Amino acid sequence: TAACEKWDNVDIVHRGERITVRGNRFSGIARLRFLRVLQARCGELGVDLRFHVSVADLSVLPAHDLLVGADGANSTVRRANESLFQPAVEYGRNKYIWLGTPRLFHGLTLSFVEHHSGLYASHSYRFDHQTSTFIVECSEATWRAAGLDAMSEPETCAWLEEVFREHLDGQPLLTKNFVKWWNFPLVRNGRWHGDDVVLLGDALHTAHFSIGSGTKLALEDAIALSRAFATETEPRKALPLFEQNRRPRIEQYQQAALDSLRWFEEMGEYIHLDPLSFAVEAMTRSKRVDYEKLRQRDPDFVARVDAERGGRR
Ligand SMILES: Cc1cc2nc3c(=O)[nH]c(=O)nc-3n(C[C@H](O)[C@H](O)[C@H](O)COP(=O)(O)OP(=O)(O)OC[C@H]3O[C@@H](n4cnc5c(N)ncnc54)[C@H](O)[C@@H]3O)c2cc1C
Known about the structure:
Elements: E1 5-7, E2 10-14, E3 17-21, E4 26-28, H1 31-45, E5 67-69, H2 76-80, H3 82-85, E6 87-101, E7 108-115, E8 118-126, E9 132-138, H4 140-146, H5 153-163, H6 165-168, E10 182-189, E11 197-199, H7 214-231, H8 235-265, H9 275-283, H10 291-297, H11 299-312
Parallel strand pairs: 2-7, 5-11
Antiparallel strand pairs: 1-4, 2-3, 6-9, 6-10, 7-8, 8-9
Helix pairs in contact: 7-8, 10-11
């Protein structure tokens, strides 16, 4: 929509040098704006939306033909039906925190800082004309060495503003009063549905934020589910069709997201590299993009890497 920000560059900032890699297609929208678009569509379709109502017990729900658990990574629907869905939830080793900043980052910017307390990475991108998302991650050892486990919210922001001072151009970090460090949950489910219940989005599968696709996957799930019902009207037939059509794609994304998550956990192994070589490692981390694909996306960047490597021989 017109509300989307679009960009094609990933900037990798290492040892103060910014390396720009073009040819990557991104589209972003402020979350609140996006929710308003979805709510308006629900209004057009006559969906009865209820806000600020938390369903803790599924037995309070009215009689239904189908229950769709689109209730996020912590899904109540999934937890109430564990023997059916056979979920596996593992947690990433790095700590991360989701902040904002008025510093505008044009394109996805991955910044790396070697600090006396350890190694930090930030993932930042602008989502409207005033604000950028600024996600910080680091190992648990760094987090503890810095004392971040015991810091208040203002202390945390002040510490990270200092760590990323050059990258933020002196701009502050913003919170929304619910800021917290997390370990990323990797959600998978052995089974996706019962006879009249199905999961979608993060309740069904998560993909690490470093590949930035969780919302897209959740939306595509909803589209795939609606298409399955356009082919088969009975849940007993439509739900297996949904899983059959959708599972291979999700497994591909989850593997790429897992490779990307692990790369950030092991970023210390690459940090000794010069900025160009480091950028190649960062761009190929999910294994979805290899050196040849990188060449197709940004021939100038790869020519620069080739020239540098040739010059070193
Ligand atoms: C740090 C971070 C950055 C990310 N960045 C990106 C990005 O750049 N791009 C991207 O595509 N994705 C990103 N994601 C992933 C994205 O946020 C999720 O994949 C996406 O929000 C999943 O949508 P969902 O509808 O399945 O779940 P959610 O967005 O979690 O929505 C679930 C809804 O269910 C409601 N709910 C839950 N339990 C109950 C209950 N018991 N009763 C009533 N309501 C309930 C919740 O209030 C919520 O409204 C990021 C995730 C993280 C953690």
